[in-house]
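Aim 2 progress update. The chain analyzed this quarter is reproduced below.
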Amino acid sequence: MTYCVGLCLKDGLVFLSDTRTNAGVDQIGTFRKMTLFQKNNDRFFTLMSAGNLAITQAVKEILLQGQLLNGENLWTVKNSHDAAVVVGDAIKQVYERDHQALEKAGIDFNCNLIFGGQVKGERARLFNIYSAGNFIEATPETCYFQIGESKYGKPILDRVLNHATPLNLATKCALISMDSTLNSNISVGLPLDLLVYERNALKATKLVTLDESNPYFQMIHQHWGEKLRDAFNSIAEPNWSGKYKSSAISAPAKKMGAVPINHQPSKVITPKAKSRIATKSGKPVKKPASKVEN
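Predicted structure tokens:
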């Protein structure tokens, strides 16, 4: 498994990926999931990958070699949208070549990519590209994408990020998201690759690989855990007596009543006993209706 997150913000882009791969607990490897593409001062792209390693490496190799896909490659396209189309076409090419052999081996064609960057003259853009080669683009309303083991790092992104978030604050948020994932999932691991792309830079000015010795990431890991515990301890415990309104947990719900409690009857009356009682009282005994089937 893996975890990659890409942020598309007013001032630029943030990319963060781990480097762990595994094919079982005894087959752990370290492979880069981030690939950079740069052409003079004309364009800059970043690709992050999750899924089957052989598939994603094959896709990256096609892109790095500059193979023409429908007459275009990453070095010649006119804008970032067309670049995402090229990446999708590379996925389709690998699928056409390998999917039958993969099916015979019982292996899914699993490839999920985050791709983003900028061509000179346009804004920075971010895309999530799927196994089928189709994709969606980040918007100001939905300004980030995650691939891989995403659930543990999502809450902090949802609470903090928006399109206007400054790059430094967004970088801290991405690293906390990664730390939460590392803490909860063994299939995601250090080192991490981090790129902060400033709008219109058209090159990598802030690129770093972080491991357990990185002082900033050490501080993030320690302080985030401490602050979470402090926040947890600062929240009042539930009050069942109703003495304190702000923490009263037994207040009735507005839309539904309380859950009904069903008690065992003091004496269980069997159908046979019920029939005897009815006979003694002189009341006619109702026979159960017969089931009629066509």
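Helices lie at 53-65, 80-104, 154-160, 167-184, 215-234, 271-281. The mean pLDDT is 93. These observations will guide the mutagenesis experiments scheduled for the next reporting period.
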